[in-house]
Write a structure and sequence with these properties.
This protein is an alpha/beta fold. It is built from 17 helices and seven strands.
Length: 341
């Protein structure tokens, strides 16, 4: 059956006995993951979770229905989670839905499946399944999502600050959650001791040094260090960092350089301009910002901001295509900086 948001949330919060399979798919993978956590909470911390992958389901289609009917050896609740499945898992899902008994709920996070997918059709047509597609939120929806995440963390987040959080995270639920978690820790907020989020707190977090994961790449790209750039991209890829987390610090640094460059164009020395910027430049970053300021003129840094902004928008539409473009743009920027060294 096809569900709307209210229906899927209600079903995941209290799984009905007559539903065996929940299919969460669509381009907003963070949104699907957030919905899956509702089932996890409903099952309880003591519940046993079984993870199955597409290869296992393809090799042994009966495994899924067996796991769904099995009892936990400790007597606790059980549930099954499937990741990255597609039409190759159809026989396993058909066996699950047609089995005589299956007391343990099965949930699948399937990503951006095609509308013609046989898996989607099965889940929509079958009375024992529930399917929900998550789309990337628009700006207003992203603000409301940020407010909801903040409320759960014990933060009262006004609309204007919710908009800032949504922009920082590019509308991605996981990235917005990370920003709100940092803000909650900074303000010592919790559900039992709510706090008001403030622009000053967000500014204070933003004024600190660049995120430890992204800072080396930011400095390599804008400093024209190509070998370091490639090393940092490989490292970030290994830890699974989303490119949106890289683009934001790069844009912030480029905007900072653009503002400082105005004074350099008026005849001031780069080191004097950086020193006069005060807290706008974190003290540990002053030497590297000074070097970058010497490499980029006003026109060059303006092009960098434009290219990074375009690349940042692509990270919202699709992870793979967006990251390919981001890598290309970073390479072009680093090569230009290298020529000026």
């Amino acid at each position: 059956m096809k569900a709307n948001r209210g229906q899927i949330e209600k079903a995941l919060d209290a799984p009905p006995a007559d539903l065996r399979f929940f299919l969460l798919y669509g381009p907003d993978e963070s949104g699907s993951a957030a919905l899956a956590r509702r089932l996890e909470r409903a099952m309880g911390q003591a519940a046993e979770r079984i993870d199955l992958d597409p290869a296992t389901l393809r090799e042994d289609p009966a495994r899924l229905s067996d796991e769904a009917a099995a009892f936990s050896m400790f007597g606790d609740k059980r549930w099954i989670r499937l990741n990255g499945i597609g039409d190759e898992s159809l026989p396993a899902l058909q066996a699950l839905l047609e089995a005589e008994a299956a007391g343990n709920p099965v949930i699948a996070l399937a990503g951006a499946l095609r509308a013609t997918s046989k898996l989607v059709k099965l889940a929509i047509d079958h009375p024992r399944a529930l399917a929900f597609i998550s789309y990337q939120p628009d700006a207003r929806e992203a603000e409301q999502i940020a407010i909801g995440i903040a409320r759960q963390a014990g933060l009262r987040l006004p609309t204007d600050l919710a908009r800032r959080i949504a922009n920082i995270g590019g509308g991605d639920r996981a990235l917005m959650t990370g920003e709100i978690e940092k803000l909650s820790l900074y303000l010592d907020a919790a559900p039992d001791r709510p706090r008001d989020a403030t622009a000053e707190a967000i500014d204070a977090l933003s004024a600190q040094s660049l995120d430890d994961d992204a800072a080396p790449l930011v400095n390599a790209v804008l400093g024209g260090d190509l070998p370091a750039m490639h090393r940092e991209l490989a490292r970030l890829r290994m830890i699974g960092a989303h490119m949106a987390t890289v683009i934001r610090p790069l844009i912030s640094r480029a905007i900072l350089l653009a503002g400082l460059r105005v004074e350099v164009e008026r005849g001031q020395r780069p080191d004097a301009v950086v020193e006069a910027a005060g807290k706008s430049v974190f003290w540990k970053d002053k030497p590297v910002v000074t070097r970058q300021l010497r490499l980029w003129d006003a026109a060059g840094i303006a092009r960098v901001i434009q290219r990074l902004s375009t690349a940042e928008r692509t990270t919202r539409g699709g992870r793979n295509a967006g990251e390919v473009l981001v890598h290309h743009e970073l390479l072009m920027i680093a090569r230009q900086a290298a020529r000026e060294r």
